[in-house]
Design a protein that fits this description.
The chain is mainly α. Helices cover 81% and strands 0% of the residues. Helix 3 packs antiparallel against helix 4, helix 6 packs antiparallel against helix 13 and helix 12 packs antiparallel against helix 16. The chain is globular and about 70 Å long.
């Protein structure tokens, strides 16, 4: 499951780290960049995949997703790697994004269903660490292979071998991004080989057998009929979608555009931007690792508040001090890394798999992920207008602050008390003998 998260986050950041190179190579406008972000693993592509993947995971099992989904991922990454025009690049990002979305509900559900009562939060955190490792490693490679990087000579040699020694500069430079996507293809191949050997979730098997004994349907229509006819399930879906949407609208922009922001608003080079964002994701890994030791023993609400306060501090820095020097730019990057280590996504993944019964657990997560990432796609396009190449950075920051405040308030009001309880206990407590 950790490799899945590595690939998911890696797909987002691999695009972001090399987006300036693709922009120079294909002559892309800010609007083109907005469309790539909107249809990628960061937004609409993942949204489409999530609702499909959630339904398939509840109908055919978690193992079904792990057996076939990464084949789609490898196809998308391969198209990006070989892209020579904007439609091809866009299609590759979309297909990769769909695969990312398909895998998310099944992965988070499988982790919770396979965990014990007192390590469920820890296992979610360890899985989330891969969301830090993926970008950290991808950005490190982006830095090393970027124009001016220590290993860029290998990129030039490879590009000249394929294109000829008279190839234009942008066509040669973009090979550093092509190579990064090639590494994702290799990791996906390894992960696919390993995941095919996983056993099916015991809880899914038990629920499937119980439904069969009762003569209940486990199809799409029945699952969503039960979901939408249950007031507790509807309230839960609204709560989780609200906290994740408002936070993710900010995080989706940071995940894809953070290197671009450092270059345009901060005025640093592509190589230095990748280095800064690599350190940011290293911060995410360290903080998440620390949280994994305490999340099953301390108040979830307290940790949630701490993470949101770090996120708010990131953007308040912009509207109070600004990022006009390298010191404040580093503070911006590190503060967001702290937030990422105690992110809303950790609690969304944990609560989303705890607060729904097994019969529509993955489907409910897929539906919420669809809504969140779909709206993130629209926001990604709107952000390019607001940001305007750095001219609207302050306005964008105020928008981020407003969204984070909503996520903080809703989370504080609705945070559930599920620590120390089994999934079966939580289901009976909230739904009875559903």
């Amino acid at each position: 499951m950790s490799l899945n998260n590595y690939l998911d986050a890696g797909a987002i950041v691999a695009g972001g780290s090399g987006i300036t190179l693709w922009q120079n190579y294909l002559g892309l406008s800010e609007m083109h960049l907005g469309w790539i972000n909107a249809l990628s693993a960061n937004a609409l592509g993942a949204a489409i995949g999530a609702i499909v993947g959630g339904v398939l995971a509840d109908k055919f099992g978690r193992k079904f997703i792990f057996t076939y989904n990464l084949l789609v991922y490898m196809l998308g990454v391969l198209i990006v790697m070989l892209s020579v025009n904007f439609p091809m690049l866009l299609a590759g990002f979309l297909i990769t994004g769909i695969s990312v979305g398909i895998g998310v509900p099944a992965s988070w559900t499988y982790i919770s269903e396979s965990s014990e009562v007192h390590n469920r939060g820890r296992n979610i955190c360890i899985s989330q660490m891969s969301w830090g490792f993926g970008p950290m490693i991808i950005l490190l490679m982006g830095m090393l292979f970027a124009p001016g990087g220590y290993l860029y000579g290998g990129v030039e040699w490879m590009a000249n071998a394929v294109l000829g020694s008279d190839a234009a500069g942008p066509a040669v430079e973009v090979f550093s991004s092509r190579f990064v996507f090639f590494t994702l293809f290799v990791v996906a191949l390894i992960a696919w080989t390993l995941q095919r050997q996983l056993e099916e979730s015991a809880e899914f098997e038990a629920n499937k057998a119980a439904a069969k004994d009762k003569g209940e349907s486990t199809g799409l229509i029945q699952s969503f009929k039960v979901l939408f006819s249950n007031k507790t399930a509807v309230r839960t879906a609204i709560f989780l979608a609200a906290i994740y949407l408002t936070w993710n609208l900010v995080a989706s922009v940071m995940g894809f555009f953070s290197p671009h922001i450092c270059e345009t608003a901060g005025g640093v080079s592509n190589e230095y931007s990748n280095w800064m964002n690599c350190i940011q994701w290293a911060t995410v890994v360290v903080i998440t690792f620390g949280v994994s030791f305490i999340i099953d023993r301390v108040s979830h609400k307290a940790l949630y508040i701490f993470g949101l306060l770090a996120a708010l501090a990131t953007w308040l820095l912009i509207v109070t001090i600004g990022v006009n020097d390298i010191g404040t730019l580093w503070a911006f990057v590190i503060l967001w890394g702290v937030n990422g280590g105690v992110s809303v996504q950790i609690f969304y993944a944990l609560w989303g798999s705890e607060l729904f019964p097994a019969k529509f657990r993955a489907g409910a997560q897929g539906l919420m992920f669809f809504v969140v990432r779909g709206l993130s796609a629209a926001w990604g396009l709107a952000f390019t207008f607001i940001y305007d190449g750095g001219k609207g950075f302050i306005l964008a920051a105020w928008c981020m602050i407003a969204l984070l405040i909503v996520s903080l308030v809703v989370g504080v009001i609705g945070a559930p008390n599920t620590r120390g309880k089994s999934l079966d206990e939580i289901t009976k407590e909230r739904y009875g003998n559903i």
